[in-house]
Amino acid sequence: MGKVFNAVYDQFMSQRPYTKYARCYLQACEAKTTDRILEAGCGSGLFLMALNRLGYNPEGLDFDEAMLELAQKRVENKLYHGDIREFCSEEKWDVIFLPLDVLNYFSRSGMKKAFKNLARNLNPHGVIVFDVHTKAHLKKVHGAQSRERLSDAQYIWRSRGRGEYIHYYITCSKQGYHESYKLEQRVHSPREILRAAAYAGFRKKQRCRAWDLGRIDRRTTRQLFVLQKV
Ligand SMILES: C[S@@+](CC[C@H](N)C(=O)[O-])C[C@H]1O[C@@H](n2cnc3c(N)ncnc32)[C@H](O)[C@@H]1O
């Protein structure tokens, strides 16, 4: 992503209730403070910071260097630069989190690769936890648009649903710098997710609504999965 986009994204996302998101993830997988936790797709470190506040000591991974630079300014946690589909380390983790729709950034084959590689980076019986958009979200954002302003930053986007994909057309500006950006996300069905998970050697532990761990219904726009390595 571009530098302006990253800075604007970070500024807007800083307003979000990350402690609530982190609590939901921790509760869903019953993580202990002694667990080794990796956040894959850690972005600017907002989720890492929330986990720190709750007494955990996670590490972060992202393939966007500009995002990692922002994260470095925010937290002292260990950060890795790499692609979730390929990253390999001698370290192994008990829990890997992919919060705020990281998996929607992958195509169907990309998601399979990501699961397979995440399994490689986990300790035996380790878990991955992620939240993703649902079909209800896709319907909701089709043809939507928004213009938001926050001090010196402006964020304008419109979106379109096409098949399983959401295309976001974004224009952002900060301190007189402008950037246009197109972001594509894929909405994977629960069936596709669980098939890819089984292929990579995971079994489903939990599937529920984000952020209250409630039951999923037709109106649920964001769902959370806990998968365990078998
Ligand atoms: C929506 S942001 C979420 C950031 C962070 N998890 C949070 O909660 O604030 C998605 C992040 O995933 C990262 N990402 C997407 N695909 C990736 C990949 N293949 N490997 C590593 N990072 C990836 C992006 O660079 C971006 O920082």
Keywords:
binds S-adenosylmethionine; four-stranded antiparallel sheet; 7 helices; 230 residues; alpha/beta; 35% strand; seven-stranded mixed sheet; globular; Rossmann fold
Average of per-residue pLDDT values: 97
Number of strands: 11
CATH domain class of the largest domain = Alpha Beta
**How many separate helices?**
7
Bound molecules: S-adenosylmethionine
Biggest β-sheet: strands ordered side by side in the sheet: 3-2-1-4-5-11-10
What count of domains describes the coordinates? 2
State the separation between the terminal residues, measured CA to CA: 35 Å
Which range best describes the helical content: under 10%, 10-25%, 25-40%, 40-55%, 55-70% or over 70%? 25-40%
What general outline do the C-alpha atoms trace?
globular
- Cα-atom radius of gyration: 17 Å
